[in-house]
Specification:
The protein has about 260 residues and is α+β, with helices and mostly antiparallel strands. It is built from eleven helices and four strands. Helix 1 runs parallel beside helix 3 and helix 5 runs parallel beside helix 7. The longest helix is centred in the middle third of the chain and has 21 residues.
């Protein structure tokens, strides 16, 4: 296991330390991997660490060669794994529930909004269909879904999905948007239309936040995540490439600032 991801939060005994074990890169086995759930919970906990309600330690584990102590403790369980005061929580739904009910400040992240919940629920499955089918019909369905999110953001006029502070839905949506940007472009030349200005404004705000940038995997790791799913081979010496991170905005940012 690798501890190269910095701890966030105070190191004294005033706040509990939460450890999040996440999947490592499938390219170099050390940096952050492209697991959506790992990034989602990383973002949730990072926000709480910024508020000093917890101290956060993030550990990466190479699931292609898991170390003996990991196998001993967790057998075949895949990250994300949350450890709170010696208690290991192993399933995604249980991790979410634990953050909401047992981690100090966590309940503030979990807001009720049925419209947003239903809107982002099936977004990722549409990306998967685009990558598998590679046809315009599936791409159109994904664009239409993104258009509905854009319309909601335009109508609400808020910085984030449910208001001007981040919540669990933002931590769920933004990693998926990043996978759509990077993997969609690489595999099928899919791009989020520049006409979706409210959506781009939203992504612009998210790119400014440490909770996203500190948890975001490299473009190469997102691409390799889907290469492995499609049984495609890695390029030679791919592990030697300098990691890149797509965080540019293809529309005029100057008038975005005025929308803050």
């Amino acid at each position: 296991m690798s501890d190269e991801i910095a701890e966030n939060g105070t190191a004294n005994g005033d706040v509990p330390e939460i450890e999040l074990i996440i999947k490592a890169s499938t390219i170099d086995g050390r940096r952050k991997g492209a697991c959506l759930f790992c990034q989602e919970y990383f973002m949730d906990l990072y926000l709480l660490a910024e508020l000093k309600t917890i101290s956060l330690k993030v550990t990466t584990v190479d699931m292609q060669k898991p170390p003996p102590d990991f196998r001993t403790n967790f057998e075949a369980t895949h990250p994300p794994i949350l450890i709170d005061n010696g208690l290991a929580i192993l399933e995604n739904e249980k991790i979410e529930r634990h953050i909401m009910k047992s981690v100090p400040g966590g309940h503030n992240l979990f807001v009720q909004d049925k419209e947003v919940a239903s809107l982002i629920e099936n977004l990722y499955s549409k990306l998967k269909l685009v990558l598998v089918r590679k046809d315009e019909q599936k791409s159109s369905a994904l664009r239409a879904h993104l258009s509905r999110i854009d319309a909601l953001l335009e109508r609400r006029g808020t910085r984030f999905l449910t208001g001007d502070t981040m919540c669990c839905f933002d931590c769920e949506l933004m990693p998926r948007l990043q996978h759509i940007r990077v993997a969609g472009k690489y595999f099928v030349d899919f791009e989020i239309p520049t006409s979706f200005r409210a959506l781009w404004r939203y992504m612009y705000h998210m790119y400014q936040l440490d909770a996203f940038t500190q948890s975001c995997p490299a473009d190469q790791d997102i691409i390799n995540h889907y290469k492995l799913q499609q049984a495609l081979k890695m390029k030679k010496h791919e592990e030697l490439e300098t990691p890149t991170f797509t965080t540019s905005i293809p529309v005029d940012v100057s008038d975005m600032s005025s929308a803050e």
